[in-house]
Design goal:
Layout: H1 2-12, H2 18-39, H3 42-47, H4 49-65, H5 75-92, H6 97-105, H7 107-112, H8 118-146, H9 155-183, H10 186-202, H11 215-223, H12 225-237, H13 247-268
């Protein structure tokens, strides 16, 4: 198995310093997951069905109704970054189930007895989740372009969108790992994942402005990391997009959330094998 070879490479890796060791272990874990995606690329397409339906149905209908105030921006343009963020969330939030599968197959125990840093194991999985989301981003861009969304194709804008997608995917996949470490069973994990996705999505600015929300929901939205991911994407993905919180704030929230979740997941990761 390719996974077994990676476990052996983790066990025998001996870089000269801690930083090189951490990077090598992280890349080794990410390599396993990316190879899994390469063996089954259909997952990328099936995961893109739901975002496509949101753009085709919800975006088209509400764009005609003009029921949601978006200023000078067309609703389909306003919604496209939110749909991309939704794709990031829905893909990453169920990523933790892979840890439970690895435990049941015995692979997780083998990885935990290697000298690899627990943080590297967690960050490697987050990096591989980001690779899956980047592939979906290309498809969502193609669908949005076909629907007439005014996308920005400036190099700088594309680079920031890519960075936002990678960070957002890493944040929610790491959060998913934390949940998997706590619940430890596939049935409970799937139930919690279903419960979390829609509240996170609807309690954000993905499909309507925060100004439309009641007071209590505005507070929830400002505590929701998905809100800042959408805000960052909306600033650079579409022509005329602006940031409500500031690009620096959007990036800072994602980075702080990622660091905090990696630290928590690193502490909890060994316990999932128990």
């Amino acid at each position: 198995m390719k996974e077994a070879r990676i476990v052996r490479s983790l066990a025998h890796a001996a870089p000269r310093n801690a930083s090189a060791s951490f990077a090598r272990y992280t890349l080794a874990v990410a390599e396993v997951e990316v190879r899994k995606l390469a063996r089954d690329p259909t997952e990328v397409f099936t995961r893109s069905v739901q975002p496509a339906l949101w753009l085709l149905v919800f975006g088209q209908v509400f764009g005609r109704l003009r029921a949601i105030p978006t200023g000078a921006m067309r609703y389909i343009d306003f919604m496209a970054p939110g749909v991309l963020a939704q794709s990031v969330l829905f893909t990453a939030i169920f990523y933790g189930i892979a840890v439970i599968w690895e435990r049941d197959l015995g692979l997780l125990h083998k990885m935990l007895v290697t000298p690899a840093y627990r943080g590297a194991l967690v960050l490697g999985k987050a990096a591989s989740a980001s690779a899956r989301t980047v592939a979906q981003t290309v498809l969502i861009y193609a669908i949005a372009l076909a629907l007439g969304v005014h996308l920005s194709f400036r190099v700088g804008s594309l680079a920031v969108v890519l960075l936002a997608v990678v960070l957002g995917s890493a944040v929610f996949s790491t959060f998913s790992l934390v949940v998997a470490c706590v619940v430890k069973t596939r049935e409970r994990f799937m139930g919690i994942g279903q419960v979390l996705t829609m509240p996170l999505f609807f309690a954000s600015n993905a499909i309507y402005p925060i100004d439309m929300m009641p007071g209590w929901l505005k507070i929830v939205a400002r505590l929701n990391p998905l809100t800042y991911l959408v805000d960052l994407l909306r600033s650079f993905m579409v022509v005329g997009g602006t940031s409500a919180f500031g690009v620096g704030t959007d990036l800072a929230v994602q980075l702080v959330a990622l660091v905090a979740l990696v630290l928590v997941a690193s502490k909890l990761y060994p316990s999932v094998a128990a």
